[in-house]
C-alpha cells in the first residue's frame, strides 16, 4: 500500500481511482465497511482504491482545546487500512491553509487533478471543505461537473451509527468489551517496555510496563484481561492480566499501563515494542492496607483473566 502526504508523490499514471475521505480514528467497523466498499468497487472496475485522511486531527488545529484523544495512532490506523486492501492512503498534513479551501477547490485539486477520481464513496454524514460546508449533495453537484460518480454507504451500527466518539466514551468508562465490539477487534495501546518500580516482580507477578509515550487511548484506571502482542516476534499473542492506574497501594502518582503475562516469569521484554490488547474489565483499582491482601487479590485477578482468555 502506498502511503503519501501529497498527490505529487503518486507514481506516474496512477489511477483512475475510487476515493473516500475521513479521519478514520480507530478504523472501527463503520470505517471498515466503507473502506471495504472502496476496495471492492475499485477491484470490480479495475481501478485504484484510495483513502484520504488527515494528520493531525482537524480539531487539533482548528480548536485545540476540544481536540479528542485519538483512539489509535496514525501508524496503527495505516496498518489496519492496509489489511483491508487499499492501494494507497493520502495522509494530508492538516493546516489552516487546507482548512480554508472551499469544497470545490479541495475536490478539484485532490480528487480530480490529483487522484483522477472515477468514483467517490462516502458516508451520509460526510463533511469537507472550509467550515465543513461540503456534504453529500455538494459532492454530487461536483461529481456532475467533474465527471465522477458518488456512492453513499449506509450507516453501520447497533441501533445507530458506529463512531469514534462512542469508542472513546466506552474507553473512558472502562468498558473495553463495548469498545471492542465497535472496533471489531480488541482495543490496543502500543509502546516500548521500560523498567518500572519492579514491585510486580517482588510480588511474584512481573509486569511489562509501557513507556509514557505509548500510543492509543488508555482506558479508565482498573484491572483488565487481555493480550500482550510481541510485534517484533511475529505478532505472538500472550494472555495477560493488565493494570492501568497509579498503583494507589504504593501512593503512586503517575498513570501506567503494565501487563503480567500469565504464568510466565522467564520473559525479557525490556526495550521491546509490544501492543497491549484489552478484552474485559475485571475490577476497579483499590487501595489495600497491606501487601498480603493485594497479593491475594492479584491471584484472583490472574485466575479470572485465565478463565476469560483461555477457558481454564
From TrEMBL:
Q: Which GO terms describe its molecular function?
A: ATP binding; FMN adenylyltransferase activity; riboflavin kinase activity
Keywords, alphabetical: ATP-binding, FAD, Flavoprotein, FMN, Kinase, Multifunctional enzyme, Nucleotide-binding, Nucleotidyltransferase, Transferase
Top-level taxon of the source organism: Bacteria
**One matching Pfam family:** FAD_syn
Q: State the Gene Ontology BP annotations.
A: FAD biosynthetic process; FMN biosynthetic process; riboflavin biosynthetic process
Q: What NCBIfam families does the record tag this protein with?
A: PRK05627.1-3, ribF
In the record, the note on similarity to other proteins reads: Belongs to the ribF family.
Explain the purpose of this protein. Answer: Catalyzes the phosphorylation of riboflavin to FMN followed by the adenylation of FMN to FAD.
Q: What is this protein called?
A: Riboflavin biosynthesis protein
This protein's species is: Allobranchiibius huperziae
